[in-house]
Design brief:
Rossmann fold; alpha/beta; 12 strands; 321 residues
Length: 321
């Protein structure tokens, strides 16, 4: 059974030049305990999709169409205060820069205790005990002492562990992790990804992992949703997509992953860049960069079609190529 259902999501930004569509007709599901990776280049719409789900779109951004359903309840049209209760108790969030998620004026213990008491019926003593348990769980050494430290007294990797503890405070059913390792060293990235994956497995928490790094998706996710220019172009099981990427854009992303011991002289490069929202091409938005583009690609916009091993949005399959 799906924990989260996103149906035909459309996110718009009204501007002086007109309406800019940043997320266009996006639909997917996330099962309980599943890790869904959402991958794409900067500007693909992946972070905005996550922000729409958690109710944190920055104005003038707005959900113009579609539905977001969590545990059978529609949440995209809830009043601010109701959505605020769901955010934290039902949905947790982990952002790219832990410093933006932590208040520098309060100790991590104070922030954990406040979050716990906001969403759970606990006394200050019970909440403080829970905070220490969470810090222990995420691998903070000497948690009884470090709970009284301020964010600046932690390293980048340790701050991100604290943010993960904050996200898990109320045992949410879903966590949205938006580029949770980008600001960290490579060695620390692996530790944080392994920690997030282990904790969510233990808690039975579903995760939407937003990243531009297909390598992180390959190591972490159960399924992957590939976004380009605000639309989904491929969705499928990670192993299947790695083995046999169908969409030309996904194939290019897979070719950009370095493989130890591989004899290739250089990685595959996708020529060109992501189109701006003000200049989305007609037809398939990827056709100006696609080495396999045909005439139909310039005129017709492909729909995401369900296939045996996933979903793909590409006219080449209709042409039998």
């Amino acid at each position: 059974m799906a924990l989260l259902e996103v149906h035909n999501l459309r996110v718009e930004f009204p501007t002086r030049r007109g309406i800019l569509v940043a997320v266009d007709d996006v639909s997917f599901e996330v099962a309980e305990g599943e890790v869904l990776g959402v991958v794409g280049e900067s500007g693909a719409g992946k972070s905005l999709t996550g922000a729409a789900i958690i109710g944190l779109l920055e104005p003038p951004g707005r959900i113009a169409d579609g539905q977001i359903i969590l545990g059978g309840q529609r949440i995209d049209n809830l009043p601010y205060e109701e959505m605020r209760k769901i955010r934290g108790s039902e949905i947790g969030a982990i952002f790219q820069d832990p410093l933006t998620s932590l208040n520098p004026l309060y100790t991590v213990g104070e922030q954990l205790v406040e979050t716990i008491q906001t969403h759970l019926d606990m006394t200050p003593t019970e909440a403080a005990k829970r905070a220490v348990e969470l810090l222990t769980e995420v691998g903070i050494p000497a948690p009884e002492r470090r709970i009284d430290h301020y964010p600046h007294q932690f390293s980048g990797g340790m701050r991100q562990r604290v943010v993960i503890a904050l996200a898990l405070c109320a045992n949410p059913r879903l966590i949205i992790a938006d580029e949770p390792t980008t600001a960290l060293d490579v060695s620390i990235q692996a530790q944080i990804i392994a920690l997030l994956k282990r904790l969510c497995r233990e808690h039975g928490t579903a995760v939407i992992l937003v990243t531009h790094d297909m390598g992180v998706i390959a190591e972490t996710a159960d399924r992957v949703a590939v976004m380009y220019a605000g639309r989904l172009v491929e969705v499928g099981a990670v192993r299947q997509v790695i083995k046999e990427a169908r969409h030309p854009y996904t194939h290019g992303l897979m070719g950009s992953i370095p493989i130890a011991g591989h004899d290739a002289e250089r990685l595959i490069q996708i020529e060109g860049s992501m189109p701006r929202l003000t200049d989305i091409p007609s037809g398939c938005s990827f056709h100006p960069r696609c080495p396999q583009a045909i005439d139909r690609c310039r005129a017709e916009r492909p729909e995401l079609i369900k296939q045996t091993n996933g979903e793909t949005s590409c006219l080449l399959f209709e042409e039998g190529k």
